[in-house]
Structures are given as structure tokens and as C-alpha cells.
Sequence to fold (632 residues):
Amino acid sequence: MKKSRNLFYLANSFSEDSGGRTQATFTRAKMLLDVSEESFILTFNFKRDYGKIYDTVREKRDIPSTITFLNMYEFFAEEKIYSNKTNQKAVYIKNPEYSYEYITSKNAYKVYSNNIQICYVQLDEEETCVYKDFFISEKRKIRRETYDCYGNLKMVTYLNALNKKPIRKVYYTDSQRIYLCIDYDRETFKVRQCIAYDKNENIHKFFSSEIDMAEYWLATLKSEYTNSVFFVEDRALDKAIIDNKYSSDKFKSIAIIHSSHLKAPYDFGAEINKFNGELLSDTSCYSAVVLLTEQQLKHVRNQFGLQPNLYHIPHIKLEVEKNYHKEKDIYKIVVLSRFVALKRILDILKAFKIAVGKVPGIRLEIWGAGEEEQKYKEFIEENCLQDAVSIKGYTTSPQDVFHSAGLSIITSKYEGFGMTILESMTNQTPMISYDFNYGPRELIDDGINGYIVEDGNIDELAKQIVTAYNSEESLKAMGIAAREKARRFDGKIIKQKWIELVKDVENGSQIDLNRTEKQALLFSEITEIFTVEKEDSVRLSFTLQNTLSPGLPNTKYYLYFSNYYDLEKIGDRYFELNVTERAKESYEVLKGSATISQTVYNELKEIGPKFLLGVDNESNFYFVEVVCSQLL
Fold:
């Protein structure tokens, strides 16, 4: 396969400890490295310690030097602004003109002039300045100076003294040259303008926002690197790709959906959310859109149609070198998660409280960090679980944690894939999961290599923990089955899917097809519904008449039951129609049939079915409302 392509991965931002989506980006970049001429991971925010983060990430995540980290702020600085580990760190030196009060718990100084605090200096563990806050009377903060991890001034933020919101940010290179200034509206405090300066500190270009800066940077990269494909991981960056005013043609672009597109209760038929939902309702703005699970792909097709550029490619199983004959601590249960409400870890604690009384000796380790940690600690203390439950903090070795345990649990409200499920199974550790969208049913075969329990049912979760420990041998056998299931997500198989997708994107047209060349549906009507009822099922045969504009014939048609949402009962709420008669390009007859259960038929009769006609014309997919005067 040719390597004359350049691959760009738009990660937006990451830190040393970023997991999930960031790890998936790194994994894909490494996986496709040998089929690209150059590979780049892009970040779009400013971080004082990106130099240190890059070095740490390369070492911890095994990122080869042939993958280049690029940052938008360095682009506008036109020089390296994130120092690396070869630099000498500058130790903070106190000014003898002022008096200082050391705050031990913060490793910081309060700085006084004539007994009035004028500054607060935050230090890192090596006594290098992280930032300085400056005050006027009444301790009102008016300015913050931010330094990199080697003590170089990198940014000055000027603040509204009343509400501490920024009114201006000024960015500096190591030589203290200003390369960027961002001004904020004094009333709304939203970005008003961004001013980029050249190496002589003359104004180079004005931008309306940071996303406007991102558009300019991406268009520049696209022009410098021919045959480039851009992977967009974060919906906040969609606009910079699909509405890019600095590029004369469309980007070859792939959007990856890492989360649900649905609002609460996160089931099919719920309202769509702002980012993933809006993108998935019309994917034509991207060359391709990738979903991580078959279930989400099914939901999207049933809700938004069979759009031609939708793909399903799951995460890959990360390779681990473990001795699976080594004894696990079978009675240890682990949870790896962010400590946020979305993950419902309190549900796990409540279920464990019930189970621990019935299965003596089980222990629970909770790994992670986040805003809800104090709630967990309080629950553990109030319920006297200190001897059985421990909060371990963030881990950089999730594979080791999963491998050490006999069981793991996940109780998210929703996920894009549930990578922790695959990580657990790869390490021969079966998982108990709530039945949420998306991931559990894609990965777990209930009762064979793990357990799926009713979403939100704490008592059922506790019962399943107890059931898992009815037999050590059964639990071990389930772990072996989990590892076998994980093999289906082998990197070689997934890599080939990505390679084929990249080929499709490269070979696809990057110019919007003129829709006037295709037939447009002017009117669609169901003229006949023929019903054949059997004991347990009903066959429905439909005849439709379409009035069309002149143009190239459409490729395929699908009829959708637009107001029925129970996919568990109906399977898919669409079926294909065939053209049986066409006259002078302006009129055609469609026919097709679907077999549904008697239960679904009765429900459709009760609600009064509504229909949409899905039109596939090869360049896109769209819906047309169908007139239907006949009742079932």
C-alpha cells in the first residue's frame, strides 16, 4: 500500500494521564504509521507544560519519534515554545524588597509590600514558579502570569477585578517576544478578537475566535502536505474542518464518534444531543463517519437513514504480555473510571455493600480520580466498608489492574464503546455491566464471558456479584471465555478496516455533487397497503407513487415507520422498496413489503403509523415525508 499520504489526528487537547479517547487516537496513529509518509497529532489549546507532557506521553504510551506532535500556538509563534526536558529549570528567587509568607500546604508564597498582599506565587515540587497572581486593594486579582515548567514566562492574563474573568491574554516566546494576543468582550467575556504577530511583533493577522485560528492553521497544513487525511476526534473541532473558509475545497476527513448521540434516557427514540446527534443527522459534511459499535450504527441508520459514508470500526484489543497461569486474586473486584456522576460508581458501592455480607472475603478497589471522590469516601465511612473497599487513585497501568482481579464492574449511563470492558476481558477478567448504550451487548455474552444486568438496578447488580462467586471454577472459566471473545478485536483485523476506509476517503470525490443532476422527489404517496395476517406475524405490502424532477434516477429507496421506536421488537424500522414502473422521468411506482410481529402490528394500528421515504442517490441520503391516507 502506498505511503505517499499524510495523516493528521485532531486530538484537540491531552494530558499525561488522558485515557479513553486520547488512547484510541494514539493507538490508531501507531497502527497506521507504516501506511503513511508522515503522521501528526494535533492539539489546539495552550498548556504551559506541553513540552513535558509530550516527553512523558512518548515514554508511557510508546509513541515513536516518527509521529510528530503539533500545537496551534507553536504554529502562530513560528518557533518552539514548549521546552523539553534538556532545559535547565529555574528556581524561584525571592525579591528582598518584599516580605513573604510561605503556605506549606500549597507550596506557595504570599508576597507583601508594606504589609499589603500584592502577589501570590505558586511553585511546583522543584521550586519553579507555576504562576503569579497580582492584586490591587482589597485583594482583587487583576493579572496572572503563567510560566512553563522551566520558569519561562509564557502567558499574561489580564482580569476583570470584580469577577476575575479574562479581558486579555498575551502569549510570549522564550525570548519574551509577543506572538499572540486574545481580547475578550468586556460585557460578555467571550472572545472578541485574536491578533497574531510576526517575528518583528508587527500585526500579522486578525481572527474572530480561536476556532477561526484553527481553521487557518488546518488550511495551511492541508496546502503544505498533499494527499492528507484528517481524523477528527472532538466535535468541538468539526467547524474547523467542515466550514473552513481558508480552504478552496473540502478536506479528506474522517469523524470518529466516541460517545452517544442521545440525550437522557440514552435509548433509541430519545432526543439527540448537540454535537454527535447533529453531526449524525447529516454526515455529508465529512468524507466518512466512524461509529465504534454495531448497535449505535443500527440506531443511527434507523433514525437518520442509510447514509453512504457511515462506517463501523471498533476499538482494538491492546496487546498485553501476561502470564495467564499466574494466580489472580479472584476475590478482588476492580473498577476503573473517572469519578463523575455519569459513571454511577455510587451504584457499585451500594451493590457491593449488599454483596459483601453474602460473600465473605470479597474486596473492591476503585481506581481513578474526579469530582465525586469525596462522596465515595463518605459512603465507605458511613457504611463501615473501610476494610473491604479502597480508593486507589489514577493508574497508568490499567492492564495490570484488570489482570490482578477476578471480576470488574461498569455502571455508566452511556459510553461510545466501553473500552474498559474490552481491557478487562483481554486480561481474562469477566465484567458485570449495566445494560447501557453502547458497548456491553457488543462485547459481553451474558452468562458466558461476563454479566449484563438491568440498567440502574442496584439490587440486581448485587445479586449478580453474589452469583459470580458461587463457583470459583466457573468464574475462572468465564475469564478464559472473556479473553477468547476479546481476540475478535485483534489489531490486525481492525487495522485492515482502517486502511480500507482511508482508501475509500482518498478515492472519493471531494467536490459536492450538484443535486440538480439527480432526481428530486416532489411528492410521494402510499396508494395501497395490502395486509396478510398469520398467527404470529403480519406481512405488509406497500405501493407508493412518486412525482420527480428530471435528472439521474435515484439508486435506492427505503420506507421508514417514522413514529415507532422499539427496535427490540421490530428489528429495523425500514425496508427496501423497488421501482416497478417509471414514466418519462417524472413519475414512478415503488413496491415493497415487510413482515412484522402481531404485537408490533397491533401497536402500529393503535398509534397510527407515519412514514418517511429514505432516498439514496449515491452522493447522499435524505428523507421525504410520505402522504398516507390509508390506515392499517
Remarks:
- The mean pLDDT is 92.
- The CA atoms of residues 252 and 261 lie 23 Å apart.
- The longest strand covers residues 521-533.
